[in-house]
Amino acid sequence: MRGRNIFLLVLIVAMALFAWRNWAVFTEEKTLSLLFTQVTAPFGVVMLSIMAVLVVVYFLYTVGLETAALLEVKKYARELLSTRKLADEAEASRFSELKKWLEGELEGLRAQSPAGLEAKLQAVMERIDRVEQELREDIEKAGNTLAAYIGELEDQLTGQDKHPPPPR
To answer: How many domains in the chain?
Structure first.
């Protein structure tokens, strides 16, 4: 993007230098046809004016595109933040459910005889390990998804969308 803008700036400077060096030719008045009528005006100045209008329109268009891209990135950032907040709340509720379940199991273990205590304790430990593994996998998936979204946003900001979007 910057290279293209620098190229256009160099091209505009070169055109201005060309017009300045040939200003006498640019200001020679000629008869110009406007389809239904004829006008006497300096042809070079008319063409430079048209070129200046086109350059201004191009820059306004570019600013509009940049603004639209930034607004879209801001929208994606808000969506990511709300999704992250929902994921955090879901994880918190999972922890609170796990805590309630563990407290209930411990109360049940205290009420039982010591013989069944070892088997129950082993079952609780296995379930804790399984829940911990699932939680780690979910956190890793969420991190990967977040990294992919951030990478996509960075690519959009730099205008180098080389990677396809992550599957949804």
So the answer is: 1
- Does the residue 166 lie in any domain? no
What range does the domain containing 142 cover?
Answer: 2-158
CA distances from 64 to 2, 157, 164 (A): 16, 14, 25
Q: Quick check: is 141 in a domain? A: yes
Place of tokens 């205290």: 110
Which residue, chain included where needed, has tokens 């949804």?
A: 168
In a domain, 84, yes or no: yes
On whether residue 144 sits in a domain, the answer given is yes
Cα–Cα distance measured from residue 23 to residue 16, given in angstroms and rounded to the nearest whole number: 10
Cα dist. 60→67, 131, 156 in Å?
11, 55, 20
- Sequence-distant (6+) residues with CB within 8 A of 37 are none
Strands (E) in the chain, as ranges, are 29-33, 38-42
pTM above threshold 0.70: no
Q: Diameter of the chain by CA atoms? A: 112
Q: How far apart are alpha carbons 32 and 28 in whole angstroms?
A: 12
Give the pLDDT confidence of 112-159 residue by residue, as tens digits: 666 666 777 788 888 888 888 888 888 888 888 888 888 888 887 777
